[in-house]
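Journal club prep — side note

Before the paper discussion, L.F. wants everyone to see what a predicted structure for a comparable chain looks like in token form. Sequence:
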Amino acid sequence: MPLEVLLLDIDGTLVDSNDAHARAWVDVLSDAGFPAAFAEVRRLIGMGGDKLLPKMSGVSKEEPLGKELSEARTRRFTEHYLPTLRPFPGVRPLMERVRALGVQLVAATSSNEDEAKALARIAGIDDLLLAKTSSDDAAHSKPDPDIVVAALARAGASPDRAMMLGDTPYDVTSATRAHVDLVAVRSGGWGDEDLHGAVAVYDDVRDLLAHFDQSPIARRAVG
């Protein structure tokens, strides 16, 4: 079916932020008495905090301590790391190419709503987005399909008229469970084996832009 909507993960895909998310978690968990190795936390970035937190601490996000740790992580990331973030090269030109083909753009991220807004501004694409969906729109975060399903609903699109752009195996699983094809980039720190199931894999968005006319996104958009 012709492509109508491209769903966008942001962290690690459009903005170089995966390390910053991991460091914010390490800071907060370590301060709370839960020793957390950066490499271990880094492998979990891309799934939501509701899943990462119990894996690293045994504490549910719904418990009082879990809520406290989640709020502390948000403050740490927003105040200390968010101001340092930059978009990957080529983000804006790539998104403009997609929009020029008549394809709508919808953010579909595991970040909360405030972070999603800030990250879209950092990516320089806020004015190009039809809508944004975040962890606030989903009962379960990636790799569950809820965020992708919510993004489809926000765009008014069926799965066969959408694709997704992401950088983690959690994006691949989430999109696959929602019956949406995913194009992956390696810029989030994952290799091709981790991204198995993606319909195509590129180094980063600049690489995708350089090969855009031959990409699954362009081929689907032009029919």
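L.F.'s comment for the group: The chain has two domains: 5-16+86-222, 18-84. Keep this in mind when we get to the figures.
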